[in-house]
């Protein structure tokens, strides 16, 4: 691309010089005004053919012929080079990558997902369903084609490399999920990510408890063993199938949903009873200090609390509306 820019700059300089040369030539040979000379030069170079500003003498005709022969060649070459530069900019892999990475610079509070296998794909689908901005890192371009088709930001590279994490915006991200099918790789990602952004919430995949302990010591906030999780899910579906489907999100209904909602400053000091009365939602539990607490009607919400809210979709949305600073909607009874 740098070679093309130099060629394009040189060609533009030659054309500008040719316009100046033609203007001076007509000024000397025909004695026209400066504007007429510029007009005649540009008209000759572009082959528009509006007609000369005045009658041309023999010297002017010879000069115009030479100007046409040189100028038309340069103009055709310029158009060819411009078309080639535009097409190359649209198809060149390096240029495409640079355009993608320029979009990542503006992301804030997004989630970085490292590894796009079956687990990574499931994570991205869920996050996109929750309208979260996601950046996926994987060293296999063919694995990222589906993600790109879904409008997910992608970055080809090794997630264990700090420079790749930095290009994905890990320093500005809200959270990072590393689900590479390799415990050492996930451990390196946790170490690198926490080094770039100590406040980053990191969730890692581990294949056994030994690897999970190492990742927790490295700074992972949560560690998930997909095999153990799958086993627990299967057992729960055997023992309590309806509750398992409800809590896992497999069942969706406007009549009853459960959602986790952070308590904003505007709701600090309000009682559980008052919030439930205004919105119609049921406050099931309060997550405080890393522990779930069974809430009672007179309990007051505190800063940094998270509440587990259940009710009809409109009622739960009303609680979220209070969090976002909007007026709570009227209580809606499920039909």
From TrEMBL:
What UniProt keywords apply to this chain's record, in alphabetical order?
Ion channel, Ion transport, Membrane, NAD, Potassium, Potassium transport, Transmembrane, Transmembrane helix, Transport
Q: Where is the RCK N-terminal domain?
A: 108-225
Gene Ontology terms: biological process? monoatomic ion transmembrane transport
Reading the lineage from the top rank, the first entry is: Bacteria
Primary location class: membrane
What are the TM regions of this chain, as residue ranges? 31-50, 62-83
Its subcellular locations are: Cell membrane
Which InterPro entries does UniProt cross-reference here?
K_chnl_dom, K_uptake_TrkA, NAD(P)-bd_dom_sf, RCK_C, RCK_C_sf, RCK_N, Trk_Ktr_HKT_K-transport
Q: Does the keyword Methyltransferase apply?
A: no
The segment(s) forming the RCK C-terminal domain are 241-325
A Pfam family hit = Ion_trans_2
What is the recorded membrane topology of this protein? Multi-pass membrane protein
- Write down what this protein is called: Trk system potassium uptake protein TrkA
